TrEMBL record:
<dbReference type="GO" id="GO:0006004">
    <property type="term" value="P:fucose metabolic process"/>
</dbReference>
<protein>
    <recommendedName>
        <fullName>O-fucosyltransferase family protein</fullName>
    </recommendedName>
</protein>
<comment type="pathway">
    <text>Glycan metabolism.</text>
</comment>
<dbReference type="GO" id="GO:0016757">
    <property type="term" value="F:glycosyltransferase activity"/>
</dbReference>
<keyword id="KW-0812">Transmembrane</keyword>
<feature type="transmembrane region" description="Helical">
    <location>
        <begin position="22"/>
        <end position="44"/>
    </location>
</feature>
<dbReference type="InterPro" id="IPR019378">
    <property type="entry name" value="GDP-Fuc_O-FucTrfase"/>
</dbReference>
<comment type="similarity">
    <text>Belongs to the glycosyltransferase GT106 family.</text>
</comment>
<keyword id="KW-0735">Signal-anchor</keyword>
<dbReference type="Pfam" id="PF10250">
    <property type="entry name" value="O-FucT"/>
</dbReference>
<keyword id="KW-0325">Glycoprotein</keyword>
<keyword id="KW-0119">Carbohydrate metabolism</keyword>
<keyword id="KW-0294">Fucose metabolism</keyword>
<dbReference type="InterPro" id="IPR024709">
    <property type="entry name" value="FucosylTrfase_pln"/>
</dbReference>
<keyword id="KW-0808">Transferase</keyword>
<keyword id="KW-0328">Glycosyltransferase</keyword>
<keyword id="KW-0472">Membrane</keyword>
Amino acid sequence: MPLEDHPQLCLAKYMFQNPPKFHVRSTFAVLLVVLPLLLVVVLLSPPSISSTADHRPLRRTEIWRSRRVIDWRPCDWWTVGDPKDLPPPKESNGYIRVDCYGGLNQMRRDFCDGVGIARLLNATLVLPKFEAAAYWNESSGFSDVFDVDYFIERTRGFVDVVRELPEEISSREPFKVDCSKRKGHFDYVESVLPYLLEHHYISITPAMSQRRDRYPSYAKTVLCEACYNALRLSRSLEDKANELLNAIPKPFLSLHLRFEPDMVAYSQCEYAGLSPASVASIEAARVDRKPWTGDAARAWRKRGKCPLTPNETAFILQALVIPTNTNIYLAAGDGLMEIEGLTSIYTNVHTKSTLISGEDLDGMHGNTKAALDYYVSIHSDAYVATYFGNMDKMVSAMRALKGMYKTLFLSRRAFAESTSKGMEGEELEEEMWRVHREDFVMGKGSALPDCFCEFKL
């Protein structure tokens, strides 16, 4: 509003330009009128767009010092009340076995889904079959990793679980229902219940995309309760995990770094400057997954499809002002390539092989090694992942369950987009810090499935 359109300010201007001949007491009275008016002008004036303070880059501090405004916490609809108060299962429609494939946390995810499906269909749950041989070259089963007695006790009363099938059922193979490729509006009641009623014993591979919005609340609650409260490592495996945890210097950051030959081969990405040994390992793992080239390769990388190298990971960690003397536990599988790119900068890196005797480690399968990484990661002071796979989703959920929010997923997309624009050095560091600070503060990148809700601080 122009000055001449504001009567009170016009009065103040007039009084300054035409001061009356007042005594001291009168002058003091005038000031009592004028000064508040001047204060109003100052407060209502918009800040100058040329202010240098508005354009100064924010001072970079360690990422964990940023104040979060959003957390993910278990939703009230499954944490409030006692699961034992849920409606009891009706008469069983038959038996369901969950066939689980892939790595440990993928199998865990599928089994959690299977618990909810069994309750949804009023089925009796048979302990799962871990189809791990092709992935891990091993034969470890559910009871080798998880505490079966504890699981059955924690789920008693809201889903029926059996160790073994009745004799008349156990002599035959289940009718297989593979839902893993189903997408879109997939519904188990419509698509799977008829097979259960017909055959009375089925095995399922859960769908990647499910209509859980159609689940009754008790089925969703059972899934969450079973996955996050009823599943724990077997006693012997938890003892070994605690031994490993106690051996790591404190405080420490758990880093889930994915740069194995099969991971890089699957990504169909190429990297410059790798050692001949790494190149050979990747080529051996490619099979028919040829790398992208030209514009397609650049577009693929900008979409964040290429795993971060250990050197790129170290660069981003430095950009996030994580000190180079930080104790880091490397949660990674066998065959990690180019690790010197990390350890040449972060010198306090610890692995299972440096903390566990070789004899103990040699006797462990892939699933049990992965279970150790999982256990250490959910108890670490901070957790950083270069990927957002099944382990990372489960670890972030368990850490949120425990109220541990120093969890961050490095953005491959942001790194690729920034470097494609020619950013490097200090400019790239500033950009990485800005992007990841925003993610950490706003809870982006750590959205948790189904059982967790966004909570504004």
